[in-house]
TrEMBL record, chain A:
Protein name, per record: Carbohydrate ABC transporter membrane protein 2 (CUT1 family)
Source organism: Glycomyces artemisiae
Main location: membrane
InterPro entries to which the protein is assigned, alphabetical: MetI-like, MetI-like_sf
Localization annotation: Cell membrane
Automatic annotation (TrEMBL), chain B:
Descriptive protein name: Carbohydrate ABC transporter substrate-binding protein (CUT1 family)
Organism: Glycomyces artemisiae
InterPro entries referenced in this protein's UniProt entry, alphabetically: Bact_solute-bd_prot1 (IPR050490), SBP (IPR006059), TAT_signal (IPR006311)
Pfam families xrefs: SBP_bac_1
UniProt GO cellular component terms: cell envelope
Keyword Manganese applies: no
Record's subcellular location: Cell envelope
PROSITE patterns in the cross-refs: TAT
Coiled-coil blocks: none
Similarity annotation: Belongs to the bacterial solute-binding protein 1 family.
Location (main, coarse): other
Amino acid sequence: MTALANRKPVRRNVNGTPPPGIAVRGAKGVVLILACAFVVIPFLAVVSTSLADQQQITEAGGYVLWPERPNLDAYRAILAGGVVTRALFVSVGVTLVGTLLSLACTALLAYALSRPGSFAHKPLLMTVLFTLFFTPGIIPMYLLVRSIGLLDSYWSLILPVLVNAFQVLIMRAFFMEIPRELTDAARIDGAGELQILTRIVLPLSKAVLAVIGLFQAVAFWNAFFNAVLYINDTAKWPLQLVLRTYVVDNTSLGVDGTELAGAAMPASQSIQMAILVVSLVPIALVYPFLQRHFAKGILIGAVKG
Amino acid sequence: MSDIHIGRRGLLRATGGAALLAAAGGTAACGDGAGTGEAQTLSETGVELPSYIPSEIAAPDLAATEDGVLAGYYSFPRDLVDAFDAPPADGAGTVSILTNMFNPVPPGMGDNAYWQAVNASVGAELDITMTPAADYLAKLSTIIAGGDLPDMLLVSASLANRSDVLANLCADLSGHISGDKIADYPHLANFPTDSWLPSVYNGGLYGVPNPRAIVGTIMFARGDLFAAQGLNLAPGSYDEFLEAATALTDPAANRWAFGNPRGLITYVGNMLGVPNVWREEGGEFTNEYETEERREAVARVAEMMAAGLFHPDAASENINLRDLFGNGTIAMGPDGYAAWDILADTYGVDVQGIPAPSYDGNGEGVHRAGTASFGLMAFKKADDDRIAQLLNVANWLAAPIGSTEYMLRKFGVEGQHFEWDGDTPVKTALGTNETTVPFEYVTDAAPILGPRAQARVDAQRAFQETAVPRIVRDPSIGLYSNTAIDNAGELAEIIKAAELDIVSGRKGIEAWDEAVDAWRAAGGDAIRAEFEAAVDTASPSPSESA
């Protein structure tokens, strides 16, 4: 008894195998630390460079890992004129409105397509699939946007990318997994299709809504090319396009840059990095709140259909 | 007022480009039936380039020379002259303009006092649609395809079907500005003749240039690093240049002579007399890649790379060369002529230019001419009155230093956008924010040296006085080849890949011959044929060289 009582419990891994030795665990730790460093160091360099002064950046050859004389000059420079601030509001507005509208339209379409036997079910499904495989080119899209009077309108940044066929299919697959008995019961209780969607289906689909919402929000936030084509008034430019004017490649030593011989020096490296931080922070703030839905939603939607 | 840079031969070549364009431009789009795919003879190709009439608004400290050395200014003229008695484009209403930009985006016109002041001075509302340069081609192509052209648009050199666009959608300005007619627009007349050559298409002048110095790319060096080791900034031969590069290289001190191998190939090529893209003799064109000298330049740079004279990441072509030059990690590198001031101002270091010596020390090296115009500001087809209004807008934008209009365009309104600090205008915070409207990419005043400290302007001037007399122009400027535009990316990639393979030691110099063969097959020979046909059709009578 005494011997048994004194015996130390043997630690075992979940699968019953004995734990690895100190050397293996140490090696794993080093590998994980290195892996983390690969991810963290670029971000650290971006933030540090945005806070560093020109002298240190020049001495370091472009990027610094830790600012010796940290200052907020770069942030003051980009936020002073009001252009970046205004563009920030434009981007937030477009992202919010676009994402909400996109979710609404995607959910409505996906729900309709998840009910076999609904009106024009197959032709509609085929139409959605068609857009997945055959996308319009830049110029037809431009002509369409122009013909419906959306040039220089914020709607030109939202409507052309409002519904994404791939996301419709993911959401449809998710909806199809909801037990039919639930919707039948609601129907017996007198619920219409809209009530079934809003009171039964959507509350059960928060995971996929979060995923699709995040996809769309990131897409709206990062989009700049539609603004290049459709928005001539720079006061309506979204943040990403404004930022592009700061970080666009310029001629440099060694480029046979006669075409650009008169081009100005690009904004300093610290300003470019400050711009990156400004553009990253808002979307990075949203991500943790949706992260727990992320893997779950995308896997459920992706493997069943 | 005579054509100081280009003789009749050059002019005929330029108009030959038009002949080729008429033939090979794929004119199906315009339906005029000329698109036979073969060169056709134009019986009347008399495109007369605008005369060069130097401005007399502010006498420079160093006068421009006839062969292309820029005028120099040691300080900003303080006795400003009104270049216009009244807003020159009064009555033009809104002038829509499409151009690219390299600066941060400015506040919109409604919130931008600088922009409004310029509009008031011009007499028209300059409605500029600006696009980051990296996306400009996509925007331009889309606008053209959409068919709603602005009044003025920057037509970039790499626009596909450029000839069709110019010939069918844009106005021929020759009736307004050829020869001495340009005197009606005196600030455009101040443009060097070299700058007008790229405007010639289809037997006409299809735009206003954005003038740049003919001197193009310069091999810059850190003067302080040379001085510290007592090295000669004017090496007399390749061997002497190599000695300097070797002396400057010290990996233990994190310093190398060079950072860009392909730039060095061009520079060593200048020592060897490599042609500027093409060499034309008796109507026959030879590309620089096909010359033995160019092959030798590649081999020499491969040797320099093997000797460790290049930054270790040089062959990646993915390093910030300006920063490395600024912090002394690399000691030499080629860049556009405007970078002289940019590098010196940004990094506060002693920047010098090194003219290429002759390879063996006998005679002189050559200097490749740059493209003397940034893009081409074309005008949408319109009646003569409208074209005259647009030319007046361009003329205002070209007002030279010493004029109130120049100061307004470059620095804004005194007291609001800039203040004088001695003889130097210093922008206020508002000025820094608002004056980034890219008027300078519509058109600009003729290029000058300075205004900067006398020592720097003198150094720049001395470089130009050495380099410009040795300048070698690209004989294909003013000619047009569809293949050159359509296949530009593929052709450049063939050569780039071969050069990097060879200089980094992955392949021997014999890979160069294979690459040149591949280049010929992929379009090089076709471009040659198109240029030769163009010159043929443009040379109906014996003509002398410039």
